[in-house]
């Protein structure tokens, strides 16, 4: 809770020391605290009762703080926790929303590469879904829906429309990208997720089923506190952020909901023109707004800090010491719209109908969410929530000009027009952070977003479309599925170019690839060859154009996976040519061969000289780092792992590692798994990565690690008669 509070407020350096001052400056620049203060201080709130509950919750937390018995982490850090208030809770909720935004990295990187790579079509690196031959969208591509084909199109002219930058300008922009990349945050940004709904007609129990597994950075303590709350007139079984009294994801005997990220583009960067405390907007010089928020350091001193704000948002380059280029501001929908997130969480718990759930969720402005719903009446429904900005000149994938007003946000799609599905005829609704729709929305020619790769959606759609009815056990197994949906296509393209091998290790590697079943279990031999080859082809393909540092940043955004699919299908792309050999033009086939040699060499050195020991589990691990990891040596004591586990990048069990860093330890994955069945509620199951307790001395510390790694679900027990160890707290009136 203490770390969550400090992330939201930008006060980490007061706890961990000066090495996190830059992180605090960035967090303060996001205006999380400012927006939380504005929300808290509103004269009227939608649900006053929600705030009463929050105050009561915080009073209890503060009473515990006053008792003075703290976890050992505070002793190690030489500090004590302070009281918690409303702003602390709301600021962290807003942080969780921003941490899904990829635009701040992708827009700046696109702008840099567009100017640097004169002989390349940079849109090939940032294709979103433009290279796909078939739409893979939530609305149009559910199992049983007719396939919606469309022509792949990347227009180089659009890519080259930006005016050229000087080398110094480009270096300055890279300083911005790298500063964001190098931030040290004890709570890492969030990743993709899976969710699917099964109608009563498609379930073996005859009831609606919801399956959901949000993917978040792995950590110890875990992201969620799992709890069952029950008092007269109210019941919920949910997954809580420890600083907030309402679950973000929950169910009861009547309804259930789950979340994945919508990934719509609600973040933009703008070049600003600033002189003498004023900025240029549509031909007028306007005074910068100033938000003062000084940084308290661990040694007790204070470092002055203030945020300059334009009509678009805060200036994000001000905090970067080495940056001397044009100021860049950050537009984020949360800065410009009411976003009553606490009221929404309360209303979701109280809602008693599909309409009430729709009404409550539609109040969210940011982040964009895919909201999945099932109830005891047999309804299944999907809502995209969060606002879609409408830009005057469309939504290019680069830093925009801020002084003219030609690229400003001029409005938002009305929430009522957001894409939705309710009780579709096919009886299945899947979301996996893929593109929401190909249809136009009012005011938008196309819906833009930082769509995650379609691999997980395609796998789920394929499997769920195979049989008529599903059980909880089968769906729980599907959440642990490790089949790579792109691997068959990938190998069909690459294997013909690798047939003529003479070296025994290469022959062995080729045989493992050929016989591989495309799954990522710890004992899989084909998986380790495939994934290392996958990386080496990508490195040979792009690092000559991007350079080592930009290659690392590029690997932090979803676009690299979408682009890779396109490159594999396009042997004529200029990117296959190695810029390091100007007297020769390499072909795709030659790059494949070189990457295969790199792969075998890596496996020999890093895994084993014997191919019989080349297994996924010997290379690929899972680890749950602790916030104290920012403290050298000590942080390792509180870390759980690394250890082998089934899973991989962009499979359903999406345990994702930092590929471009050649780090084979999963950094993110399913933060919980659950399957709720309204035909037989007692059969519902769940999983947590490590367990509820973050107390090193607790018998429940890390007690669920083995089950999570092995995909073993446990029953959700709503009925008191099935509880084995029960303690009750009863509140009695005073005499």
Question: Which helices and strands, and how do they pair?
Answer:
Blueprint: H1 2-9, H2 13-16, H3 21-29, H4 32-40, H5 48-67, H6 72-77, H7 86-98, H8 103-116, H9 156-159, H10 167-181, E1 193-198, E2 209-217, E3 225-231, E4 234-240, E5 249-251, E6 255-261, E7 267-271, E8 274-275, E9 278-281, E10 284-287, E11 289-292, E12 295-296, E13 302-303, E14 306-309, E15 328-332, H11 333-336, H12 341-350, H13 354-361, E16 369-375, E17 380-385, E18 389-391, E19 400-401, E20 409-412, E21 420-422, E22 428-431, H14 455-464, H15 472-479, H16 487-494, H17 504-515, H18 525-554, H19 559-569, H20 588-606, H21 616-619, E23 621-624, H22 634-637, E24 640-643, E25 656-657, E26 665-670, E27 673-677, E28 685-687, H23 705-710, E29 714-715
Parallel strand pairs: 7-19, 23-26
Antiparallel strand pairs: 1-2, 1-22, 2-26, 2-27, 3-4, 4-5, 5-6, 6-16, 7-15, 8-9, 9-10, 11-14, 12-13, 16-17, 17-21, 18-20, 23-24, 25-26, 27-28, 28-29
Helix pairs in contact: 1-7, 4-7, 5-12, 8-10, 8-18, 12-13, 17-18, 18-20
Protein name: Penicillin amidase or penicillin acylase
Keywords: Calcium, Hydrolase, Metal-binding, Zymogen
GO molecular function, one term: hydrolase activity, acting on carbon-nitrogen (but not peptide) bonds, in linear amides
């Amino acid at each position: 809770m203490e770390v969550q509070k400090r992330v939201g407020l930008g006060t980490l350096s007061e706890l961990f020391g000066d090495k996190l001052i830059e992180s605090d400056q960035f967090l303060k620049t996001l205006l999380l605290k400012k927006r939380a203060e504005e929300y808290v201080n509103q004269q009227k709130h939608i649900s006053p009762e929600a705030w009463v509950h929050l105050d009561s919750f915080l009073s209890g937390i503060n009473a515990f703080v006053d008792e003075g018995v703290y976890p050992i982490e505070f002793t190690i850090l030489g500090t004590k926790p302070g009281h918690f208030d409303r702003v602390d809770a709301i600021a962290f909720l807003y942080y969780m929303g921003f941490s899904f935004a990829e635009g701040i990295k992708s827009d700046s990187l696109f702008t840099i590469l567009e100017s640097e790579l004169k002989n390349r079509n940079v849109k090939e690196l940032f294709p979103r879904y433009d290279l796909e031959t078939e739409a893979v969208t939530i609305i149009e591509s559910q199992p049983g829906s007719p396939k919606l084909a469309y022509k792949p199109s990347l227009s180089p002219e659009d890519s080259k429309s930006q005016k050229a930058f000087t080398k110094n300008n480009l270096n300055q922009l890279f300083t911005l990208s790298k500063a964001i990349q190098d931030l040290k945050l004890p709570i890492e940004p969030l990743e993709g997720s899976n969710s699917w709904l099964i109608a009563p007609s498609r379930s073996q129990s005859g009831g609606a089923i919801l399956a959901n597994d949000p993917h978040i950075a792995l950590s110890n303590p875990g992201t969620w506190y799992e709890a069952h709350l029950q008092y007269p007139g109210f019941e919920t079984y949910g997954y809580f952020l420890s600083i907030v009294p309402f679950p973000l994801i929950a169910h009861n005997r009547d309804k259930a909901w789950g979340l994945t990220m919508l990934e719509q583009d609600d973040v933009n960067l703008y070049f600003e023109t600033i002189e003498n405390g004023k900025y240029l907007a549509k031909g007028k010089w306007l005074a910068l707004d100033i938000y003062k928020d000084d940084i308290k350091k661990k040694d007790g001193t204070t470092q002055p800090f203030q945020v300059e704000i334009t009509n678009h948002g805060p200036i994000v380059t001000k905090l970067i010491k080495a940056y001397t280029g044009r100021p860049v501001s950050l537009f984020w929908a949360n800065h410009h719209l009411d976003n009553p997130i606490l009221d929404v969480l309360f209303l979701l718990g109280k809602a008693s109908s599909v309409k009430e759930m729709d009404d409550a969720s539609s109040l969210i402005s940011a982040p964009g969410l895919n909201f999945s719903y099932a109830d005891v009446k047999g309804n299944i429904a999907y809502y995209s929530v969060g606002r879609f900005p409408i830009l005057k000149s469309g939504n290019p994938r680069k830093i925009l000009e801020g002084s003219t007003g030609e690229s400003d946000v001029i409005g938002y799609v009305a929430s009522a027009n957001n894409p939705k599905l309710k009780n579709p005829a096919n009886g299945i609704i899947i979301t996996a952070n893929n593109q929401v729709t190909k249809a136009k929305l009012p005011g938008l020619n196309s819906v833009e977003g930082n769509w995650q790769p379609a691999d997980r959606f395609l796998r789920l759609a394929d499997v769920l479309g195979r049989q008529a009815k599903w059980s909880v056990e089968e769906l729980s197994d599907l959440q642990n599925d490790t089949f790579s949906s792109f691997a068959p296509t990938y190998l069909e393209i690459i294997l013909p170019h690798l047939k003529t091998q003479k070296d025994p290790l290469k022959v062995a590697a080729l045989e493992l690839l050929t016989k591989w079943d495309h799954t990522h279990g710890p004992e899989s031999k084909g998986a380790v060859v495939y994934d290392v080859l996958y990386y080496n082809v990508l490195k040979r393909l792009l690092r000559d154009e991007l350079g080592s540092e930009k290659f690392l940043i590029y690997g932090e955004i979803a676009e690299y996976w979408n682009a890779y699919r396109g490159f594999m299908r396009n042997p004529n792309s200029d990117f296959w040519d190695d810029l390091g050999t100007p007297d020769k033009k390499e072909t795709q086939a030659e790059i494949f061969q070189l990457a295969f040699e790199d792969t075998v060499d890596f496996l020999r050195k890093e895994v084993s000289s014997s191919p019989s020991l080349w297994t996924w589990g010997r290379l690929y691990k899972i680890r749950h780092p602790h916030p104290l990891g920012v403290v050298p040596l000590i942080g390792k004591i509180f870390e759980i792992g690394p250890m082998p586990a089934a899973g991989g990048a962009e499979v359903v069990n999406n345990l994702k590692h930092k590929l471009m860093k050649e780090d084979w330890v999963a950094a993110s994955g399913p933060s919980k798994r659950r399957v709720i069945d309204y035909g037989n509620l007692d059969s519902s199951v769940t999983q947590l990565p490590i367990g509820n307790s973050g107390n090193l001395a607790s018998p429940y510390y890390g007690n669920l690690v083995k089950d999570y790694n092995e995909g073993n679900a446990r029953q959700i027990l709503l009925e008191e008669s099935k509880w084995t160890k029960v303690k009750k707290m009863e509140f009695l009136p005073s005499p």
